[in-house]
Amino acid sequence: MSYGWIALGVVALGIVLWIVAKMASQDSRLEVSQDTLLKYLEEDRDMCILDVRSRREYEEGHVAKAIHMDYQKISTHTEYLDPYRRKDLIVYCEHGMRSRMAITVLQRVGFSRVYHLEGDLVAWKRAGLSLEA
After folding, report:
1. Are 83 and 66 in contact, with CB atoms under 8 Å apart?
2. What is the pLDDT of residues 20-31, one digit of tens each?
3. Which of 129, 128, 1, 116 shows the shortest CA–CA distance to 51?
C-alpha cells in the first residue's frame, strides 16, 4: 500500500469526522434547565411535560404534571398530542436517547415549540428534585 493512499484515507477520515462534529453542533433541540422547569411549574405555565419512557418507568416516578407516551408510539399517535401543538412541549426520558428520537419525530410532524429537559430524569434525580408516582 502506498503512502498516497494512506494520506488520502487520513484526509477522508478527517472530513467525515468534521462533518459529524458539525452536524452534532447544529442540534435543533432547545434545552430547558431543571430550574426553569421548576419555575414554570410554580407559575402553573400552560405547557405540556412529556415523559417518553416506558409505562413502568413512568409509574415508578415522573416529573409533576408530566403526561406519558412511550417514545415508540409517538410517530403513530401524534394526534393525542394535538391539544399541545401550540404550547411549549418539554420532553424527557431517563438519559436522553429516547427523548432525542421523540423530539425529532415531533418536529417532523410540525410541533415547533418542542424543548428538551436538560440532563433528563437522571439529572433531575441527581439534583434531589421530587417525583410523583
Report:
1. no
2. 444 444 454 599
3. 116
The third-level CATH classification (topology) of the domain covering 29-126 is: Oxidized Rhodanese; domain 1 (3.40.250)
Using one digit for the tens of pLDDT, what is the confidence trace for 72-114? 999 999 999 999 999 999 999 999 999 999 999 999 999 999 9
What residues have CB less than 8 Å from 127, skipping those under 6 apart?
A: 34
Q: Give the integer Cα–Cα distance in Å for 122 and 118.
A: 10
C-alpha–C-alpha distance, residues 81 and 20, integer Å:
32
Residue with cell 415531533: 106
Q: Within 10 Å of residue 22's Cβ, how many Cβ atoms?
A: 9
| Segment (H or E) for 4 | helix 3-25
Residue extents of the structural domains in the chain: 29-126
